[in-house]
Amino acid sequence: xxxxxxxxxxxxxxxxxxxxxxxxxxxxxxxxxxxxxxxxxxxxxxxxxxxxxxxxxxxxxxxxxxxxxxxxxxxxxxxxxxxxxxxxxxxxxxxxxxxxxxxxxxxxxxxxxxxxxxxxxxxxxxxxxxxxxxxxxxxxxxxxxxxxxxxxxxxxxxxxxxxxxxxxxxxxxxxxxxxxxxxxxxxxxxxxxxxxxxxxxxxxxxxxxxxxxxxxxxxxxxxxxxxxxxxxxxxxxxxxxxxxxxxxxxxxxxxxxxxxxxxxxxxxxxxxxxxxxxxxxxxxxxxxxxxxxxxxxxxxxxxxxxxxxxxxxxxxxxxxxxxxxxxxxxxxxxxxxxxxxxxxxxxxxxxxxxxxxxxxxxxxxxxxxxxxxxxxxxxxxxxxxxxxxxxxxxxxxxxxxxxxxxxxxxxxxxxxxxxxxxxxxxxxxxxxxxxxxxxxxxxxxxxxxxxxxxxxxxxxxxxxxxxxxxxxxxxxxxxxxxxxxxx
Length: 487
Prior knowledge:
Elements: E1 2-10, E2 14-21, E3 26-33, E4 45-46, H1 48-69, E5 73-82, E6 87-90, E7 100-101, H2 112-121, H3 125-128, H4 138-147, H5 149-154, E8 157-160, H6 161-170, E9 175-176, H7 177-180, E10 186-187, E11 192-193, H8 197-201, E12 211-212, E13 217-220, E14 235-237, E15 240-241, H9 242-249, E16 257-262, E17 266-272, E18 284-287, E19 292-298, H10 302-311, H11 316-325, E20 333-335, E21 353-355, H12 363-389, E22 395-399, H13 406-416, E23 420-422, H14 428-440, H15 447-454, E24 460-462, H16 466-484
Parallel strand pairs: 1-5, 5-15, 9-12, 16-22, 22-23
Antiparallel strand pairs: 1-2, 2-3, 4-7, 6-8, 10-11, 13-14, 16-17, 17-19, 18-19, 20-21, 23-24
Helix pairs in contact: 9-14, 10-12, 11-12, 11-13, 12-13, 13-16, 14-15
């Protein structure tokens, strides 16, 4: 009999299921996509039943393949992670009241100013440690009070994405410190729900579930379909938010390490032992497994590059070719804020642009400017993180889908003048969830033991080119002046 752990990640566009041995070696993985619905401009909703159905399908495939590789496999636990901020409302019987509102949703954009003023008036920023943004859970909740009050009148429980999935598998209503901290409803230094907000905004916050530690044993799976019988009756960890799960898998638990994840967006984060008073309001503070996580969230990374690529009829290889061959000096500039931005500016109404265009510029110049503009935004977010912490000698670990391109990484390395320690392509978020499940089941003695046994090691280092760095320093200063600078 050999032991295996299951990690489940409810991502922005798909669910990923990973089956690993307790030494971190992967037995199998599978994924299923689901739709994001936009019935009105700016809305981004998902159907929680599609989350569950996709998870069951992916888990069935992953377990079947894992069992073919190891006929004696015994699943010891399951752990959960998923997209932050996205939430679903349940009635007293546990039934879904309306589609889930995701972090991509911007229907509450017009409430940002009003909410900020109310928080300022009550001197609450010192406890919340974050500024309002349309995707943070508090804002769409306030929108519902004005536009769908009958839904909130019937609401019994609010669950975040991964918590809904765990509830359907175990029957336990709860969330964890990391995911709760992304709702703008938590007293960050105390790591507890800030129930006083109910008076400030006339909200019923009794719908918020119990907060537990990510690695806590929170229920046992039951009622699994026949093809998921290997997962029946096993301990479930509470789980955690996606960036904190990736941090576990990447060994990012202690100060001095920066994690950069390159995907649809880009998240730049570093652990801090004391809850900081963030002066730079383009950054977020979230709870980490132990301590806190200072994070910059670049909304327009891979999404902006895909827009540029589609617009110009190009492939990813064209980006790489233009990085290698284009002389940056005469190239135009690209401001990538196509969907507003959080970091390096905090402005939901920000827009994108190509600037300094001339008749002599061609498609390759536009492609180069596109990827350079995204890199400059990530570099600016990294600077904001390191300046806020105030130390040097960072160990920068970088992963995500964008890390497959050494040209992309080289441009970022040159722009920041930093060594980038590249993580091998892996499903790090689901792996982090699996580690939490192992701790909940007693497979690991504690969180540190699980990370030591299962964390991913970096496989190569990208070093900066000093000549190109100097050229990019000048271009980045001009880019800031032309619209890319932090507000």
